Amino acid sequence: MIRKWFVFVSALLMLAGTAYAQQAERPAIATTKVEGTDNVYIFRNVGHQAMFVVTNDGVIVTDPVAYGRPTGGQAYLDAIRKVTDKPIKYVIYSHHHFDHIAGGKVFKDAGATFIAHHRAKTRLEQLKDPHTVLPDEAVSDRGRTITLGGTTLELSYHGLNHSDSTLVMRLPKEKILFVVDTIPVGTVPGRGMIDFHPFETEAFIKSVLALDWERMIPGHPGPGDRLGTKKDAEDQLKLLQAASAEIKKLAQDGKCWEPAEKEFKLPEYEKWPGYAAGLPFIARRYCGLWGRGT
Ligand SMILES: [Zn+2]
User: Fold this and answer.
1) Which residues of 150-175 are buried (b: 16+ CB within 10 A; e: fewer)?
2) pLDDT at site 244
3) How far is the CA of 270 from the centre of ligand 1 (A)?
């Protein structure tokens, strides 16, 4: 009996050790081909990631994800070069936030055309961030379709959301979306709430749910690096609606900011990654809405 226990406990320890080692050995940078596709890849740099698509006539790159990572753009280009030597034709920005779009100079030097939503272009021209390449072309609210080497990529605008400049990217043939920040996969939103538009985001998620897609690549890796599904988008919408309703009560009881921020809980989401860290940001943003009217 004792021996059995010993074997059991040893096995548990080994399992725990393996899990720990896997976590510790996770490389900072990784490229993954999206399962079931011929040419769609995810490039990840620590906690940020972007999609790139290889076509016969060149490569469509999205967010450079190199904020605070001086060699990040080059690492991204090197990762693409391991897959193809086709020219880099486009870099498309998901929205104007630097943590996703800084670091594209190597792609500019390689001759790429930079594309962003028109409001991202205007904002970036005002800010002149030294590490961020300015867009060459602006996409209007009506969207744009890119076709290159047999691949179609639709860029669409669905109103204000986590930012005011988000382009939803959809590969219609593959039924894959690339949406950054507004629809986290299985995690609680956090700092990104700072310039989040509460009502419009609910409409944004509903509008994205109405598109034809099966899998979503998020801008930050989800639990286990899994891709998102429509269920994840529905879950995120429910989380935001629950948070909004909860803070609305507290705000109308006169409890915003401090008491509401202390009392606010979302027990249903307690086990989701980012819960403890994200809660104060969510409370602050919805107190802004229901406690102040903003
Ligand atoms: Zn963002």
Assistant:
1) ebebbbbbbebbbbbbbbbbbbeebe
2) 98
3) 23
Instruction: Report how far ligand 1's centroid is from the alpha carbon of 197 (Å).
Output: 12
Q: How far is the CA of 90 from the centre of ligand 1 (A)?
A: 20
pLDDT for 151 equals 97
- pTM value is 0.91
3-state secondary structure of 192: helix
How many whole angstroms from 183 Cα to the centroid of ligand 1? 11
Q: Where are the domains of the chain?
A: 27-228
Average pLDDT over the chain, rounded to an integer: 93
Fold of 27-228: Metallo-beta-lactamase; Chain A (3.60.15)
- Which portions of the chain are predicted below pLDDT 70? 1-24
pLDDT at residue 1, rounded to an integer: 47
Neighbouring C-beta atoms of residue 207, cutoff 10 Å = 16
